[in-house]
Amino acid sequence: MFKVPTLVSLFLLVAPKAVFSSPCVAFDADFNLLAFGLDGKDWSAGQQDSWTSGSATDITTSGRPPFDGDNTTCYLAQFFNAIYFMNADKANPSDVHIYDAGAKAWSTQKVTTGNFDPSSFNTILDHDTNVFYALSHNELYFLNMGELKTANSTALEWQDVEKSPYPDSYDPVMALAQNHIHFLDVPGLPAGTADIFVIHFSFFQPQSQTYTAADGSTFPATHGQTASFFQAEGVQQEFAFIPDDGSMTYVINVENNSTHTLAGPTTKDPNAQYAASITALVQLDSTGAVSFIPYKQGDDATNAQAAWAKVAAIASAAPAGSTSSATGTSSGSKTSGNATGSGSGVAAGTRQTGAANPTSTDGSTNGAMTNGASLGALAGALLALVAALQ
């Protein structure tokens, strides 16, 4: 006997399944911009002069993680042209996945956590030592990656360094420059000031450091995200700090202890990720849209005129909203690391909690709104079909 299909049964047959992904962006050692986990694939947009036209190259290959973690982050080990991924596999959150950018090959490094909590941490990757330093529940840990560009059969181990000097309520904002970890938005510190952990001597510097701008302005004492600018040779000397409100981009130079400003990102997204090369700062927002602002170290006049633009090559290959992001956060919070170290990913740490939707000053909407409208139209059509069959 023929049965009239229910609305639910018809909807389940034709409704698209949501694809949840936690993508990230990073550079390889030649400063090709790479996007991982967008639209279920990995992409290369090439070097900066090719970002605003054409289409990114599909570099998806076997052995990659599923990019379904709570908040995936990725970091460039510049000396080895390898990119390390954390929280890229929800089933195995302690694994570090390694992409050998030269060989275009993946491997998975097993890691023993001990008391380190892979669901709640903030980390940077030191440039010269190739060691991760992380705060997890206010305890400082390190993970030595050695010279790995391919995983080995022996598990690595997170090592406990010491208790941090900060209260348990501190939501860390960490940035790397000159082999020092800079802690911003530390309770009690004024605007324009950071605490410093000296990596090579493994101690917290007793005095905080102030970074002033030529006009006397400073970066605010607020939570935000960071990304370190690379150099052609040597360690990073500058890092970008983007407050969660996206009002401005601050560039802190630790060589002369100064602060400079760039325009804030077009999309004001507290959950965005950031990555930096030598000459650009890149944003991956939580809809999957990738944008950048050019940067020239030491040239305030040029930087003052710089504007954010879409990375059209990635938008052409993987339009924003084509992948539903499982991540909810970015800088300085739970479940992830800060891409500022030697690479990218979510900027300074990440928060697992869902945050406000991003907004764009160009008036564009995100993919969630489009999906909602499409499903509403589908539901209406199904209701009409059921009525006709009854």
Automatic annotation (TrEMBL):
State what protein this is by name: Uncharacterized protein
Give positions of region: Disordered. 320-368
- UniProt feature, compositional bias: Polar residues: 351-368
Q: Which organism is it from?
A: Trametes cubensis
Where does the signal peptide begin and end?
1-21
| Record keywords, A-Z | Signal
Composition bias of kind Low complexity appears in 320-339
